[in-house]
Amino acid sequence: MLAVSESGFYGNFGGAYIPEMLHPNVEELKNNYLEIIQSPSFQEEFLSLLKDYVGRPTPLYYASRLSEKYNTNVYLKREDLCHTGAHKVNNTIGQILLAKRLGKKRIIAETGAGQHGVATATICALMGLECEVFMGKIDVARQKPNVERMKMLGAKVIEAVSGSQTLKDATNDAMRDWINNPVDTYYVIGSVVGPHPYPDMVARFQAVISEEIKKQLAEKTGKENPDYILACVGGGSNAAGAFYHFAENSEVKLIGLEAAGKGVDTGESAATTLLGKEGVLHGSRSLVMQTPDGQVVEPYSISAGLDYPGIGPVHAYLFASGRGKYFPVTDEEAMEAGLQLSRLEGIIPAIESSHALAYLEKLNAKPEEVVVVNLSGRGDKDLATYIKWIEDHKS
Amino acid sequence: MNRIDQVFQEKKNILNIYFTAGYPKLGDTVKIIKALEKGGADLIEIGMPYSDPVADGPTIQESNMEALENGMTITKLFEQLEGIRDHTNIPIILMGYINPVIQYGVERFVEKCKAIGIDGTILPDLPLPDFKREYKALFDKAGLYNIFLISPQTSEERIKQIDEASNGFIYMVSSNSITGAKDKIQEGQVEYYERVKSYNLRNKKLIGFGISNNETFTNACAYAEGAIIGSAFIKLLSQSDNLDKDIAEFVKSVKG
Ligand SMILES: Cc1ncc(COP(=O)(O)O)c(C=O)c1O
Q1: Is the beta carbon of A84 within 6 A of some atom in ligand 1?
Q2: Domain of B239: which CATH number?
Q3: Taking the model in full, what pTM does it have?
Q4: Does the complex come out with an ipTM higher than 0.85?
């Protein structure tokens, strides 16, 4: 388990650094989330939706051709098969059920690539709730299909025109909306970021990933612990979910893969553990990519879902304590890994997930070892990027 | 005595004006301070610009972005304020989000404030318990006041805790909103003002957010010792080609 302290800290990281105007909302959540999500009626509804609506448990698939290539045993946790195409929906179901129990009528969310926005809009449609999704103006332009999906699902997409007009600014605008609408509105955060209790709450909703891996691995290999778990880290929710129930098994090596973009030294990167410094962003103390003066910098990755200048406090903690290892993966390494998986296994992964796959090249796992890669999403949303990449690299 | 206490002792209907350091031009800081003091403002709040000001509306956001583009930093601001007490006596409060202050070093920041003659700070995303645990002793030693915010959603219990921990005054956010100028008094505001008044807090109160003109200022003064204007003043700065004259007229028009 990845336990958070009473005041919302993992070691030095976490907390709730928010303006007073947000305090009552966050306090209400903090005082109620555990009791609600642990109640039998919540669990029943949550689990039944995960099963019948999302399609859980997602398979743990032995990727034989990939295993052969790397001369080890690679299992893929197929979050790409979740309804809406990524792990994000595990969290949106949990939070929106919670919002309903808190009596909230209106749901807001931020989104970068649009995956969390789509997952939020989907569950709002299912529950008949009003939904508004904040998305940076630049992301609206580069993620058109997801914008249209959200609209089809009945959500209103609001362009964030503040700051650098991407994910961090969409998050700022969602927080501003929550300040302006403190009574009837619930803010669904899409990763293990934000003020306490969000990081812990989102990790709990995503923990179903590692719970299933344990069970499935035991069935397949007789051993519930793999040697390695690889997961990509944007804010870190799929990784937190995949690590959650293994955190105390020190023989399981937890490896997070961050987007190096064009390379960690190029100024166009999103590798937060390497390039970030301790600081406060979006309500928690964590590692943040920033100038020496404390201004948050705009990161870069080919993958919009990893294009975030912070990481969840739980990852800052795992990184600082050494329990988790974090490595950068470039655009190029990720794209090659995504194309390789498509050809070897017939699975087109989300470019985010391709970052985790790419690390198989460098892992050097032994023939008898077991590696689980969390395949956080599918690549449908990324087809245009893949196609352009193939065109540009034809030579 | 802290200049903030002094101003509350000596004056009524206090007008506190906010502007963003480095806006409209990098070098305008001292000029604006002097014009405000001369024009009759009672207190000055200088914003330290930040890339992600979550409690601020479009007007102040834009001034933050421009100020950063102009090259404003905390270091630069302190350089500009060096020696300010040789020619001004108006209380000055620095307002800013916590991350740049953490990067500057909170201890170093507090020392610098003291050396220059800054009277208080407003750090909206630094929570009360964290302030008390980590920084209060430092601030107390330097005689620097940290001002806290309350909003219509803040519970009575919490308002009393904040009152207990506050120095100088309490910043009453006028409605459930981010910063931004409004011309009219908002629904439910009077009930909230009356409710807070009935708590008989030990601290003075200034009302801010949405105050923009004589009407909204006068209304706020009926329930608190004064009010704070931000966005409306930033708008004025953005349009002004004669800062001294326009600032004097603005202060006069608000005070009536
Ligand atoms: C498929 C997929 N994986 C990973 C992420 C990154 O988020 P996190 O690090 O919270 O898992 C995203 C975000 O959009 C995503 O869509």
Answers
A1: no
A2: 3.20.20.70
A3: 0.97
A4: yes
